[in-house]
Amino acid sequence: PSPLSDTTPEPTISDVPPTRRESQTPVTALAAAAVDALLDREAQEIRVIDLRGKGGVAALLVLATGTTDVQVRALSESVRQGVKEAHGEKPWRSEGTELNQWVVLDYVDLVVHLFQPERRSFYGLERLWGDAPYEDIDPDADSSAGIAMLHPSSE
Questions:
Q1: I need a labelling partner for 141 at 20 to 30 A (CA). Which of 8, 40, 44, 123 fits?
Q2: In this structure, what is the dihedral angle of CA atoms 36, 152, 140, 95, given to the nearest 10 degrees?
Q3: How far does CA 73 lie from the centroid of its chain?
Q4: b/e code 113-131 from CB counts within 10 Å (16+ = b)
Q5: CA-closest candidate to residue 121, choices 48, 39, 63, 35
Q6: pLDDT digits 0-9 by tens, 78-136
Q7: For residue 71, which of 44, 107, 33 has the smallest C-alpha distance?
Q8: Burial class (CB in 10 A: 0-12, 13-18, 19+), 52
Q9: What gap in Å lies between CA 22 and CA 18, rounded to an integer?
Q10: Cα dist. 120→29, 124, 150 in Å?
């Protein structure tokens, strides 16, 4: 046997991205909980982008801006806590929590992107998904209840 064989880790199943969550919670409910958490922490420029049918990795994106690394960290913690309390879900993966300039919380079919203004402008995810339906959230809203994309009427 090679001397490296004992120290080289084997790939694990957790390294492979899941194609769906184990939970049956609708993705719109997860997104609503994330938006509510962002509103509680006074996030700016909250946008929900619907990628269903676009061949994207996720069904919904939630984008929001925090003015400082401290606020982006608070937004990230608030989303994690809010989604977990409302639906028992944790992100499958998260990135960017070291510098808190652009944090990604990946819930498989929902991905939450939290930016500082310069990073959001530079990466321009809104431009990348410019043909997808979206809804901008009023920062003075009390909750996600009025967001048609997340709470479609049952007419």
A1: 123
A2: 40
A3: 14
A4: bbbbeebbeeeebbeebee
A5: 63
A6: 999 999 999 999 999 999 999 999 999 999 999 999 999 999 999 998 888 888 999 99
A7: 44
A8: middle
A9: 9
A10: 25, 6, 23
Backbone angles phi, psi at 121, to 5 degrees: -65, -45
pLDDT for the residue numbered 81: 97
Placement of tokens 């003075």 in the chain? 140
Residues 6+ apart with CB under 8 A from 87: 23, 25, 29, 30, 33
* Mean pLDDT value across residues 36-52: 95
CA dist list (Å): 45 to 2, 54, 80: 54, 23, 19
Cross-strand bridge partners of residue 111? 61, 106
d(CA 71, CA 73): 5
| Amino acid letter, residue 9 | P
pTM: 0.84
